[in-house]
Amino acid sequence: MGEYKYIGKSVPRVDAAEKATGHIKYMSDLSFPNMLWGKIVRSKYPHAKILKIDTSKAEALPGVVAVVTWKDVPGLNGFGIVIPDQPVLCEDKVRYIGDAVAAVAAETKEIAEEAAKLVEVEYEPLPLVDDPIKAISEDAPKVHDGGNVHLHTKIVRGDVEKAFKEADLIVEHTYYTGRQEHAFLETESGVAKLEEDGTLSVYAGSQYPQRDQMQLSRCLALNPRKIHVVSYPVGGAFGGKDELTIQPILGLLALKTKRPVKIVLSREESIISYWKRHPMIMKYKTGVKKDGTLVANKVEIYADTGAYASLGGPVLNLAVEHACGPYKLDNVYIDGYCVYTNNGVAGAFRGFGVPQVTFAMETQMDIIAEKLGIDPIKLRKKNALRRGDVSPIGNKLTTSVGTVAVLDGVKETDLWKNKDRIEKVDKERPWIKRGFGFALTYQGTGLGIGLPDYGGAVLRFREDGGFIVGVGIVDYGQGTGTSYAQIVAEAMKCPVEKVSVILGDTDLTADSGPTSASRGVYTGGRAAVIASNRMMKILKEKAAELLSVSPEDLEAESGYFYVKNQPDVSISYEKIAMEFLKTSGHLPQTEGYFLMPIADIKIKDAFGLPHHIFAYSGHLALVEVNTLTGQTKVLEGAEVVDGGIVVNRQGFEAQVEGGYVMGMGYGLMEDVKIEKGIFKTVNFSTYIIPTVKDAPKRIQTVPVHDPEETGPYQAKGIAETVMVATAPAITNAIHSATGIRIFKIPATSELVYNLLKEQRKNESTD
Amino acid sequence: MKEFNYLRADTLSEALEMLEEFQGNVKVLAAGTDLVVRLKGDMVKEENILDISRIKELKGIYAENGIIHILPLTTHTEILEYPDMKTAAQILYDACKSVGSPQIRNRGTLGGNVANASPAGDTIPALFVQGAKLRLKSKSGERVISVEDFFTGPGRTVLKPDELLVDIYFPTMSDDEVGFFKKLGQRNALAISVVSVAAKLKKSTEPNKFDKAFVAFGSVAPTVIRGNRVENALMDSVVDSPEKIRYIAQLAWREVSPISDVRASLKYRQDMSINLLYEGLLELYKNGWNRRS
Lengths: 766, 293
What we know:
Chain A is an alpha+beta fold and 766 residues long. Helix content of chain A is 28%, strand content 25%. In chain A, β14 (294-306), α8 (312-322) and β15 (332-340) form a beta-alpha-beta unit. In chain A, α8 packs parallel to α9 (354-372), α13 (480-492) runs parallel beside α14 (520-547) and α16 (649-668) crosses α18 (726-738). Chain A is globular and about 90 Å long. The N and C termini of chain A lie far apart (60 Å). In chain B, 46% of the residues are buried. In chain B, the strands form four sheets. A five-stranded antiparallel sheet of chain B has the order 4-5-10-6-7. A four-stranded antiparallel sheet of chain B has the order 11-12-13-14, sandwiched between helices. Chain B is of the alpha+beta class and 293 residues long. Chain B has helices at 12-22, 35-40, 76-81, 85-88, 90-97, 102-107, 110-115, 123-129, 228-236, 242-249, 266-286, and strands spanning 5-8, 26-29, 48-51, 61-64, 67-70, 133-138, 141-146, 151-153, 156-157, 164-171, 177-184, 195-203, 210-218, 225-226. Chain B is built from eleven helices and 14 strands. The interface between A and B is medium-sized, with 30 and 25 residues.
């Protein structure tokens, strides 16, 4: 990318200094004069009728300013991105142990906590729904009156039964995945404050301020223009702050007390109360010809969405869409159920349903490669979708398809080059076995068909000749803000230091849709390019006027316009800014809006499907398994990623490394355990995430790309795909090391040990 | 979190004075890495907290006549940084290294780890096999007991209400002694042990024979426990093959009485008691019963 000054370069993050020095103020750091503390009263039962709520003792406690219940909700007592089926405060029934029943605002945090304990709620426990498959049966107790199946999506193409008859090999297994917690550093926290003009300001880290504003307006019966949402900065989100969390309760308390109210959730309350990755049970039956050609795939998916819908439906649909992997398959039968239970709540999480099915499908592929004696890369290449092909669910892929670029790129990694030199059994310690594993995946970028998907950016010219770009997208660690600065600097031909970025503010930024679905750089970036092109035209005309030349004669470079072939005739952007101020008293502002391109067909009965643009990635793992303990150590990892042209090389590497380690945690240790509706792992002492000492010594990152012309500077997005296939790469490596197959993740030491023990037992009885 | 009275003693005699005065209605705070978590969870019944963290007399390490004294307020990091600790007390050294994270090792103390009396306390099995003794002091006197006699149950010890742990000491390892500490956690740092095993062997002049053997297990019983059957087998056998080691290690099954919890099942803990011991012994055997360099 020699012609670019900033695109593809490791430009330091725009927020690096304030984060490294600790000067940045997260929402949990905010404090206002006269501020109260809020505390939420949550259910004591995973499923129960509410008979009575008595707040009198809590209200009588000195220092308590307000106690709110469902009676205080002025608007719709419900929220939810797809259907608002989750009460802000429960009225007659609780559906999970974290359900909010009441809330308290008090002078101190301690008084608020004490008062919360004084709210008396009488419950009548109801039968528990904790098994997503049993929950489907007609006679199961109901979590919601409408039944326990929130969404059923079925896609049938071709004839699987006929194709299975023609297959030379059929591989059939059931897969299970764990309930992963986002484990962001900053728990759900924030402050709501009623301004003098009656505006309600809500400061709470989230992923889509404009949608928060819309949902809050509905709950609080308030004109959305009277709600100002600030959702940046955010101390991590990963999908877990896509839906509303504490915001409606904060709003209620601030409206009732007319004072600023702050809530900071403890880690325990955070884990119990809000979203998780959907645990899934997946039954796979895959038919293949002797030469490795996939002929049929029959998949059943059961997703446990917990008590409320949130994004459970779209998560299931993404799992359905990606269930067959990026492979050509003309006979598919995919039957998915998203089921209500009393097991907490599940919602959006990086990968959005795709990590689950990728674990299953990529294990199927590894088994097929082994049984047919075909190299795993060759098997995948033989079946890989290419541009122009029809996807397993029936849409034609007309945009960038990076499968081949990724599979070719795999051969460039050090891990692949050295894989045959791996010492399979440690010479000194023969109980240590090593193995290499691979997995391929893809991930839809954007929201999918039928959902309005657009990017928006406002660009303001600064007095000093620099620019401010405002995008509704939020940077919760991905580095999106820095990407926008680079994109604007590149488009405006100005130093990147002269671009400042504003994110996640309903007053100051353009609605750019949710910060999710790997769409931040693609949509917001493209909108920023459009806004920049408009700004460039305005500035160029002004410069031409001032230099008395025609705009076509001008060339921009480093914050100056030069007259072509006359390098000594120039004018700085700063000078142009002063001229604007002198003549009109204000500086120009432009906006850019970009409508996401959509696929050629809609998939019947599958809202949001298909996607049109996809990122692709191949994940590699070298592992060491201690066969005495079952412990797996990932010695080295690598990822080959087609997310389009890389905007920030350093940011790209950080995303890959972070994604890989998150995927490793998903594959080896992370699982929120819920027994009979009660959480057993409520903090980081029992909910185990990897530490730096568990991370591989090295994760090599190899960017490849199949050009995607519609993206800003041909960028797509990488945020999700980089974590999606790490777990199966690792479990496939465990198989190569030990011969055992992992059908359930996390593959904890105990699980691996038990499988090894079973294997030894079978060997000795053979 | 409920309220409590915070008291601070700046000298040992002040501390002993206060202990006597509060007669058991006081919880001692050394560094707080365990206690603060319990306070936040409202798991402390005492109404008074006695902070002893600034008592200088209870900090430090010294060696005297082949005995290493580690005063209770010495941090894990200080133990790791003490010259020659790796050779003089290799097993305790490895145990200290496995504690929590750098932050916790910088703050947490050896005395705190012992007095907290968790069956999962990382340094305790090491102190068992290193033959540690504890000096307990009260206003009216003092006594010395073996570390093994200190624990009566999870979080419970023989400390009387007016007593404080004031010294932990054990003999320096001699050249003919080898050993190991092994910990299995759910991850490689900040992990509470699922099972831990410590062992120390005094080599005989005959090859593959041992004059003395000490083995201790953590997280597999209400307290850390000694493995006497395993020790006897190690002393009575010629330990000259992996098969023999396997056979001896299997005796661990008779020593342990673990439970199932959110970290691991009873069965897995049983098997791991055997396998960690086996792995540790096998590594030494493969190294000719020599310490690793």
